[in-house]
Write a structure and sequence with these properties.
Helices cover about 50% and strands about 15% of the residues. This is Thioredoxin-like.
């Protein structure tokens, strides 16, 4: 009985450690480095505006500088449909929890700029009208105004 109880405790403890979400990790990192968090909800294999957002903005050098220069921590909450692109059950669950908290309408793409406490500073519904440079500049300006 003791062994069974010990095994159950170990599993619960392991799940508890793993349950720490990307958002919680991003919040800690953002707080330490005085960064903002960019949370993007996407359908990477079915949502054309999502695909364009990633190709034209997220994968751009201008956006990558935001990450390397400690301006933002980026989180992608992806909801692929194709079987070959499916995420792990843990990641699916985490993305669903993020959607429950921040994307109740189920918009795609939907991008949020958050402070380290998780407060929404700016949101973009759909594909942002800005190009990568303007998008990145807007984020930098918001960060500067947070000081």
């Amino acid at each position: 009985m003791k062994k069974l109880f010990s095994a159950i405790l170990m599993v619960v403890f392991a799940v508890g450690i793993h349950a720490q979400s990307r958002l919680e990790n991003a919040q800690k990192l953002a707080l330490e480095n005085k960064e903002l968090i960019l949370l993007n909800f996407s359908g990477s294999d079915w949502c054309i505006p999502c695909i364009k957002l990633h190709k034209n903005i997220i994968e751009s050098d201008e956006f990558k500088k935001l990450e390397t220069e400690n301006v933002v921590v980026y989180i992608n909450a992806d909801f692929p449909r194709n079987k070959k692109n499916q995420l792990s059950p843990e990641l699916k669950k985490e993305n669903a929890l993020l959607a429950d908290q921040y994307n109740k309408k189920g918009l795609f793409p939907y991008t949020l700029l958050l402070n380290p406490e998780g407060k929404i500073l700016k949101s973009w519904e759909g594909l942002p009208a800005e190009n990568a440079s303007a998008f990145s500049k807007e984020i930098r300006d918001i960060k500067e105004n947070q000081k």
